[in-house]
Write a structure and sequence with these properties.
single chain, alpha/beta, Alpha-Beta Plaits, Rossmann fold, 2 domains, two-stranded antiparallel sheet, 13 helices, 39% helix
Length: 292
């Protein structure tokens, strides 16, 4: 059996539920309303059949996020999350480039890399070379002035940690940003790239090995094995082509406000809500969410 979670915070009514059920019943006439997770916000429908077919049958319901998955296990014991444009709302390297007057040039390369049009390691090295000579203090300024944590990220991570899950922040970005962000949000594991400095300035080089799509996937597998978990115990979230392998490796892979290159590969998509909506996906009622 499968579960389709409907999420439309403050707007989910019987009409939307019935419309969703009608679409599911075209695939499985026995599809049924299972229960409210939080009335008016999120509900579960039960169906049998192909989860991918069910997902696309429900796709396109305006203002509603829908995640389709097996009915067990709902609660995930490992969260693996991308950083830039996922846990935070920015691409750090683009914002950092603004301090060197190169944001537009760097952002164009970033966008092509996230769409899967460029080799990620090569694109990263090209962008970092453009920043050679930038004062190290610009990183702290960028973090303080430009970077904002995505709505719901802390609630998601800290609720999962409180429930016994491990949370890994894995980024094709830089440890200079990932370490303070991970600490602020509540991650207990980190993997990211290391910038190289010379005389207090960026050298234009990044340390080896580059954290690319394969390295992200490998980090997920390593954490999963260390914790003695199965594939279905893992939730992964990301936004770009560089997240595709880890999204496919997770038991539940979620595309978050993502590029088309990732949406097709993911098990579900969050487009309209914050990251805390992934707690509804796991069947957790709002009353049990972490409140800092």
């Amino acid at each position: 059996m499968g579960v389709a979670t409907l999420i439309a915070a403050g707007k989910l009514d019987d009409r939307l539920v019935d419309r969703s059920l009608g679409l599911l019943r075209e695939l499985d006439p026995k599809s049924a309303f299972l229960h409210w997770i939080d009335e008016g916000d999120a509900a579960d429908l039960r169906f049998s059949g192909n989860p991918t077919a069910a997902r696309w049958a429900l796709d396109g319901l305006e203002g509603m996020d829908i995640v389709v998955q097996p009915d067990e296990p709902r609660w995930k014991r490992l969260l693996v999350a991308d950083m830039d444009s996922t846990i935070i709302g920015q691409e750090c390297i683009d914002e950092l480039a603004d301090y060197a007057g190169l944001k537009d040039k760097v952002a164009r390369i970033t966008e092509r890399a996230m769409q899967g049009e460029l080799d990620f390691p090569g694109a990263l090295r090209e962008r970092v070379r453009l920043l050679a000579g930038l004062d190290e203090r610009a990183l702290s300024r960028c973090l303080n002035e430009r970077v904002e944590v995505t709505a719901g990220a802390e609630t998601l991570v800290q609720t999962m940690r409180a429930g016994g899950a491990s949370c890994l922040l894995v980024s094709g970005g830089f440890l200079s940003f990932a370490e303070p962000i991970a600490s602020a949000v509540g991650f207990d594991r980190i993997k990211a790239n290391r910038l190289i400095f010379t005389g207090g300035k960026l050298s234009g080089e990044v340390g080896d090995p580059i954290v690319d799509a394969m390295a992200k996937c490998d980090a997920l597998v390593e954490a999963r094995e260390q914790l003695g978990l199965k594939k279905e115990d893992v939730l992964a979230i990301g936004d770009g082509a560089n997240d595709k392998l880890m999204i496919e490796e997770a038991g539940l892979g979620i595309a978050f406000r993502a590029k088309p290159a990732l949406i097709e590969a993911a098990d579900g998509e969050i487009r309209y809500h914050g990251l805390d909506s992934l707690l509804w996906v796991q069947g957790v009622r709002r009353r049990d969410w972490f409140r800092g």
